[in-house]
Write a structure and sequence with these properties.
Layout (H helix, E strand, L loop, with lengths): L25 H16 L4 E3 L9 E4 L9 E19 L9 E14 L5 E6 L1 H14 L10 H20 L1
Antiparallel strand pairs: 1-2, 2-3, 3-4, 4-5
The structure holds ligand GNR and nickel (II) ion.
Ligand GNR binds next to strand 1 and helix 2.
Length: 169
Amino acid sequence: MSILTILLYPDKRLNTVAEPVHAVTEEIHNLIKDMAETMYAAPGVGLAATQVNVHKRIIIIDTSPARDKLRAFINPEIVEATGVSDCEEGCLSVPGVYEKVQRAQHIRVRALGADGAPFELEADGLESVCIQHEMDHLDGKVFVEKLSRLKRQRILTRIKKRHSDENAR
Ligand code: GNR
Ligand code: NI
């Protein structure tokens, strides 16, 4: 097992659209294990393969307080979305930035599990937000790209300042 490097916004590789998985092989199992180790170490409640520079349609989430309910979604699709929620989001690829993003409140997702079998799941609250956030990563979208130009510009300025402060130390 290994901890993978998480790409940081504004890395252009985060804008890659991920490809569907055609077979759930041992290579995919190993990737999911490494993604889980990376997510728990971060720590985060979700991770998309895109963030570790693997452009395959795989996300994992664990929003449980005990951090013992890992779920993998391969080729996830939202089959139903209702209501509106705006929840403060953060992202392991944009450390230290938290902003409200508008999402569907309730979703029904269809995907393949790590065992290759299809399943459907209904989600609300943080789990729903997290699945939508991870699925955006697979389409090459980082949550800050959903904000207004002004907010995004301010975030970019803050990130650049932080980098120059780090380099000056
Ligand atoms: O760890 C994470 N927390 C989080 C909080 C609110 C909404 C979304 C998230 S996902 C994030 C991990 C991450 O960056 N996944 O892509
Ligand atoms: Ni993220």
